[in-house]
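User: Hi! Is it possible to get a structure for several chains at once, not just one? Here's what I have:
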Amino acid sequence: MRKNKLVSVLAATGLAVATLGFTASTSHAAVFQVRLYVSADTNVENLYLKELIPAFEKAFPNYQVDLSSFDLHGKNDALTLAKIIAATKAKKDAGFDVIDAGFVQQLGLSGYLTIPTTMRVPNLVNVPASLIALSKGGVPYRASTVLLAYNSRVVAAPPKTLDELITWIKANPGRFTYNVPSGGGSGYAFAQTVIDKYLTATEINTLVTEINKPLQAKWKTGFDVLKSLNPYTYGKNGTYPSNNAATLSLIANGSIDMGTVWSDQFLSGLKAGTIPSYWKVAQISGPALTGGPAFFGIPKTSRNGVAAQRFVNWVLSPAAQNIIVGGSLNGYPVIPVTLLSEANQGKFAAGTDISTLRPGYLSSNSTDFKNQWALEVPGK
Amino acid sequence: MSASVTNQVAKESFGSKDSKLSLLGFFMALPPILVLGIFIGLPIGLAFFLSIGYTGGLNEVISIIGQDIRGREGKLFTLQAYKDVIADPRFAGDLKTTLIVSSVATVFVLIFSIGIGLLQRLRGGKLSSVLTALSLTPLFIPVVISSWALYTFYGSAGLYRTIFQSFGLDIPQITSTMLAVIIGSIWTSLPFAILMVTSGFQSIPNALIEAAQDAGASLITIIRTVMLPLALIPIIIVATFTSIGVLGSFTIPFFLGPNQPTMFGVEITNFFTAYNRPQQSVVMAFIVFAAASGIAISYIWANFRSAKESGRV
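Assistant: Yes, the chains can be modeled jointly so their relative placement is included. Here is the combined structure:
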């Protein structure tokens, strides 16, 4: 009797599971999948998981975006890059349809990306041509810049130029720092900005757009200036915080009065209350701290190339750009500010032109730069 | 005659059973050997060939991505990558830092563990139990957490400086220095050392110590001539494990050490990811491997001696 009951319960469960499975598989039949690979900080992870992906799936119910490949701080970038190159060489699917990582330009330069066109990605028309040229086959989709953060209770008038900043650093020993260039972009931006001061505009442009070893010899003057700052930066012993977050925590606990930060991370920190409200940011000039776009890349052998381009196109739409600007990330758009909602337009000073952000060097040059910095500056 | 035949048969059947068992043993050992061979042996082999300039085949992709890769260019092999690494100004500093931190940490770990071990063996009581229990705490705290805790404790705004500050003393911060790395390494290596050394001292029979006491030996003499020699093998094992462990450590020097010079664990990671120089990082790994092998020889010697003492060899 009891056994019979058990059997009938089992049968009912089995039937239910079967029906569920059936309905699930029928509803999956029409779903296009986009597999994302993102290597970035947690603020970008939140942008995707909590904002962009839900909004995209709401707008396109038959699309499903899979972000199971998130790589915090890009620790596995080298491995992923190897995987994509190996797969493309073997003409096989790499396992990703859209890549958002620092190595997108490198993939593009070697010809491993599908070059986007306005036919499949019509929203590209709104993206400044200079940004597209920079992307080497990738698609710029958001930007951010590095700014000078300062404690407004201590610093009444922040430095306006790089020269003034260096004077301030030397006048206030131990109260400024930037992180190790290989550990995060905010410190990298400061180091490159000091170096760029001693290069011509053409030389900088060459390093931004092509691999050029001989030109790297001209970095020497800038490195000497950076080295001369060792006794004046935080710790006063030629050691530097290891990454962006380490700089932010020095800001949070009052160990420094000035530091270089990512615009988006700083604004998110202010909103979350992890950075005291009396901290402010400013841009310097002569030259300005670097910034620039983040790129999407679509691998040539991607299995879902068309769906991938649909997703990329949507991210370039004003709706999605509004999320990037107005959401938790506080990013910069890659389309003209005038296309954004009025509330978001108000976030930028009139005449803000994202195409004039000073970009960082091309990845291979910037890798050499990080290597050289470690050789020339810390502990000297 | 028939008896000897049956005996022979019995022997043979026993022998075949024995060989069957050894065959079974071989097959049971096969999976771990295969796993080691495929997942550890093969990558090490590949890495070694990359380090001497074999950039084709399975090393092709990493050679495309990596910067400053030295190929053998038709020759049998090239040591150019090794020359590059040794000529790099960072190499000497890193080597010095790694050796100093490893040896200083090992010496202190030995002093502390022998001290606590002797206290527990000779005096016992509450104090030694509390000390032993406390010294085992790091065993239960993940290294990442403890490094971060040490970083905040010794950092500029940490408790350590705050206490001195409240007495008007401005002492220099010790994070981002080798001293902090040594403190962290001692902290993480101590529990295992204390477990080994105390058990070594505990296994010394009371009779030996009492006999020495009756013969009028002083405490120092007893420790020097009876206890330390009898616990020599666990002490050597502790010394080798601690120095090899510190030699290859990453987390502690990454959190607590200076940017430059740093320990090899951190530098290898930097070269592999941040500077995109996989070949040079592999070369450094082989240099560290060679150093660790040197230390491992004394471990093998200790094992061999203990096996000889117990009559296994």
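The CA atoms of residues 131 and 231 of chain B lie 20 Å apart. The mean pLDDT of chain B is 88.

User: Great, thank you!
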